[in-house]
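Subject: complex prediction, re-run

Hi both,

The earlier run crashed halfway through, so I resubmitted it with identical inputs.
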Amino acid sequence: MGNGAGADTRSVTAKVLAMLEAFTPATPDLSLSELARRAGVSLPTAHRRAAELVRWGALERGTDGRYRIGLRLWEVASLAPRGLALRDVAMPFLEDLYEVTHENVQLAVREGLELVFVERIAGRYAVPVLTRVGGRFALHATGVGLVLLAHAPTEVQQQALTSPLHAYTPKTITDPDRLREVLAAVRRGGYAVSDGQVTLDALSVAAPIRGRNDEVVAAVSLVVRAGTAEPMNLVPLVQAAGRGISRMLQPRFAG
Amino acid sequence: MGNGAGADTRSVTAKVLAMLEAFTPATPDLSLSELARRAGVSLPTAHRRAAELVRWGALERGTDGRYRIGLRLWEVASLAPRGLALRDVAMPFLEDLYEVTHENVQLAVREGLELVFVERIAGRYAVPVLTRVGGRFALHATGVGLVLLAHAPTEVQQQALTSPLHAYTPKTITDPDRLREVLAAVRRGGYAVSDGQVTLDALSVAAPIRGRNDEVVAAVSLVVRAGTAEPMNLVPLVQAAGRGISRMLQPRFAG
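This time it finished cleanly. Structure:
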C-alpha cells in the first residue's frame, strides 16, 4: 500500500483513522512522508487530508514541519467513558491511596487481550514502573492485568491462555494451567498480587472495580518495591479503594 | 443539512470529524439518529460510518444501543504533546503542590480564545471549582487564563479584548482597558491572581510554564477558598512549580 500499486479498497473513514493510528508512543511526531507511508496513502492524499485534520485540530503541525496529535482530538477523546470519565470518578480514591502510601497507584481497563492504563500516580521516589497513561500492557503479568483477565468473558480468557505468554522476568507466569489457577484465586480472593512478574523489583497488589451491572470494568493497584511490604497488608487498602470507586459508578451516584 | 436537501460539499474527512465532534460534555452519549442529526448526515450514512468507527474503536456502543467515544480514540489522543504528554511531565510538580496545600491544582493550555484544562487535582475538601479535565473556559476570568492571555500573540490578545467579556461574578474584569492593565501586570510580575472572578468564593494564583523557545506554553494554578490565604504567600509556591515544569520541558530534559 502507499506505492500506488494495487487498488486500495479501504473506505475514506478507514483511511482517515489510519492517519491517526500512524502516531504511536514510539513515533509521536511524523513528517508528511512518514505519515503517508504509515497510513498507506499517496503523498498528495496525505497532504490534503493532513491539512483538513490540522484545520479541525485532530493534528497539529510544529514549527519543525512535523505532525503531532492535536489538542482538539484529545478534548473530544476526553469524553470516553472508560478514559477520563472513569478517571475523574476514581481520582479522589487514587489520591488517597497515594497520600497514605506515597507509592505508585494505577488505574486500568481491559481492551481486547491487553490493558490500557487510564491513570497513574507515580511517587517521585517510588519503584520505577514500565507504564504510561494511555499505554498498553499484556494482561498476564501485572496485578491490574490479572484482575481484569480473571473477570474477562470466558472467550477472552480462552484466547489469552492459548496465546504465547511473554516472560517479562523469570517470575512471570507463562504456564497456562498455572495461570488458570491464579485467575481462579483472584476471583475467590477479590485481589491479585504480581510479585516480580513485570520487573523483579516491583510488587503490585490490585483489586477489581465494578460497574452498573456488578461486572468488573476496571482495576486499581498499588505498586511498591518488592520486599518492602507484606502484600497482605496492602490488600485491604487497595480493595477499599476499589469498592469506593465501584460505589461511585453505581446508578445512584453516576452522572 | 442531513435532510437530503442541498448538496453537502464537505469532504468525507470533515464528515468523519463531524461524527466525533457530535459528542460534547453535555451529550457524551448519543443514539444513532441524534448522531446523524448532529453530524449533518443521513441515517444510513451515519449507520455505516458509526459501524466503521466502532470497529476501529473510535466509538463504543453500549448495551443501551447508544454511542460513546471509544477508548481507542483516547489512547491515540493521549499522544497529543499538549495533552497527556505535558501532563506527564507536570504531574510530579502538581502532586507536590497538592500535597503541601491540599487545595485545587490546575494545569491549562490556550486553544484559540479559550483555555483547556489538561489536568486538575481537586482536594476533597477544597473549594469547588467549575472545571473538568478536557473542559474549556474563557481566558479573561481564571488565573491560568490571565497568564495564558498575557503571554498570547498580540492578535489573540486584540481579539480577546474586543470580544464580549462575560461577567461570571461582579468581580470579573469586563472592561478591556482594565484587563489590558492587568495583563501587563501579569507579564511584569510573572504571576496572575484571580480573586472571586470566576466564583465569588474562589481565589486562584497562577504562573506561566515556558517551553523550548522560552515561550509560554501552559499555566499552573492553585485555587483556594477566598479569604483563607494571602495571595502573595501562594505566589512563590506556584511560581516554583511553574519553573520546575518549564525546566523539564527544556531540550536537555525533553524526550
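The first strand of chain B starts at residue 29 and ends at 30.

- K.
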